[in-house]
Write a structure and sequence with these properties.
Blueprint lengths: L10 H15 L18 E6 L4 H16 L3 E6 L3 H10 L6 E5 L3 H7 L18 H5 L11 E7 L1 E5 H7 L7 H13 L11 E4 L8 H12 L5 E3 L5 E3 L4 H16 L12 H9 L3 E6 L3 H6 L7 E4 L10 E10 L6 H11 L2 H9 L9 E2 L6 H4 L4 H13 E3 L7 H18 L3 H16 L2
Parallel strand pairs: 1-2, 1-3, 6-9, 11-13
Antiparallel strand pairs: 3-11, 4-11, 4-12, 5-9, 5-10, 7-8
Helix pairs in contact: 1-3, 2-13, 8-9, 8-16, 9-16, 16-17
Length: 442
């Protein structure tokens, strides 16, 4: 299978599209508060990056909003080339009123000029939103660009039946992780008499920066980071640090030396890695708690558990992420955006997002601190674990950096090349550090 095309290669066209849009829409100053549009009529146009049953889940949430406010919602949802379609809409001067997308898009959207600043003091229930969630939508100058809707931190899914077969306990450290991965790869944990199992399930594609997304957990556990705040509203590159090299060396050892990663990993996106875990190809999967629902719908239901990611040389660390509600530039619906955002952070909308459609947990962990995810899911301890990981060791990427997705994509391409050639980690990250430094000067 050929390597998926990187989103980064489309950036020049993206920049052109946004420049055209910015020149013609008359960007408003504060989409969540004082933008001049006020409240227009007709359905609120909301675009969502998602697929499958997520549409049903969002529909249930939006029905509650309409019932409370009388404002109808016109939903458009896709998971394929969502940002590309959004940029095409910008070029055609047809941006929606609201976009719900990954929190990691904040820096890119801000740099492109297609989102507006939000006055969080006007969002009803803002004091119930966790400080960590608000921080994830705040730039280094303290300005807020979006309203958090969902949070998550990566957990480790582990086949408990395989652990029993090889006589081992769930891993707590990198050392443990490597040992269990080796056992799952070499000791026939599924008992079929074939050499067809692997320890780790890795989404190693460069598409959307998947490999960087996965590796960031090891980076944080090693005490490293991608970028560091400069103290003047900007960033400096930290990707060439000894801690980053340690994290890259660990992943390289698992892939190149121990050979405990599923075949085809460097071309795999999350749909591929989901399948590898759900069909018994790999026995450990570092992913978000959204995987509970889809995995429980397969033959491995009841055969796995969720644990905190094993600690690295500098302790615990887990990639924290979120889904953000963005106010789009040029919208004439600022008052309605405020009403919409206020409803979306409410306990009612948060709970519906978690449990309204069991196969689509569009709220992974609630950003509203009054909502208990374990209780909402019928006392399921896996959700309590996910919340604890987020609270104790969750760490967001520097998503407010201009064009953060470009950094993520560059890191994924560097790591993918490193693993495919089993090369020198220090040399690879030194080169990446140079790329990051050049980007920061733009």
């Amino acid at each position: 299978m050929s390597k998926p095309r990187s989103h980064r290669r489309m950036l020049p066209l993206t920049a052109l599209a946004v420049t055209l849009a910015a020149a013609s829409t008359g960007l408003t100053a504060c989409g969540g508060g004082d933008s001049g549009g006020g409240s227009a009529t007709g359905p609120l146009k909301v675009w969502v990056r998602g697929a499958g049953d997520s549409g049903k889940a969002y529909g249930k949430v939006f029905d509650g909003f309409t019932k409370q406010t009388g404002i109808k919602v016109e939903l458009f949802m896709t998971n394929t080339d969502f940002e590309t379609k959004l940029n095409a809409a910008a070029a055609a001067h047809k941006l929606p009123d609201v976009v719900i997308d990954d929190g990691a898009q904040l820096g890119t959207f801000k740099n492109q000029g297609i989102i507006t600043e939000v006055d969080k003091s006007k969002v009803g229930g803002n004091a119930q939103v966790s400080a960590a969630a608000w921080k994830s939508v705040t730039d280094n100058e303290g300005k807020t660009y979006g309203v958090p809707y969902s949070a998550q931190a990566n957990v480790l899914l582990v086949r408990t039946d395989w652990l029993k077969k090889v006589g081992m306990q769930p891993p707590k450290t990198w050392d443990d992780l490597e040992k269990v991965a080796k056992a799952f790869t070499t000791q026939d944990p599924d008992g079929n008499g074939k050499n067809d199992t692997y320890g780790l399930d890795v989404p190693g594609s460069t598409q959307r920066g998947y490999l960087s997304w996965y590796w960031s957990n090891f980076l944080y556990q090693a005490g490293g980071s991608f970028l560091q705040p400069s103290g003047s509203g900007g960033f400096t590159s930290a990707i060439g640090s000894p801690e980053a090299v340690t994290a890259a060396d660990f992943l390289k050892k698992l892939y190149c030396t121990d050979k405990v990663v599923q075949p085809g990993a460097l071309n795999n996106v999350t749909t591929d890695t989901n399948k590898a875990f759900q069909t018994g190809v790999a026995g450990m999967y570092l992913t978000g708690p959204y995987a509970y629902a889809t995995t429980d719908a397969t033959a491995v239901k009841g055969k796995y558990t969720a644990i905190a990611p094993p600690a690295g040389p500098k302790g615990s660390g887990s990639l924290a992420e979120g889904t953000t509600i963005y106010a789009m530039a040029g919208s004439q619906r600022s008052d309605d955006f405020t009403k919409f955002a206020s409803y979306m952070v409410s306990p009612q909308a948060q709970t519906t997002g978690m449990t309204g459609v069991p196969t689509a947990t569009i709220v992974r962990l609630p950003i509203n601190t009054t909502v208990d995810p374990a209780k909402a899911h019928g006392g399921d301890p896996r959700w309590q674990l996910a919340q604890q990981v987020y609270n104790d060791s969750g760490r967001y990427e520097p998503v407010s950096a201009p064009d953060w997705q470009t950094y993520r994509n560059d890191a994924a391409e560097t790591l993918n090349k490193l693993l495919s050639g089993c090369g020198d980690s220090q040399q690879a990250l030194s080169s990446l550090n140079g790329q990051f430094s050049s980007l920061l000067k733009k």
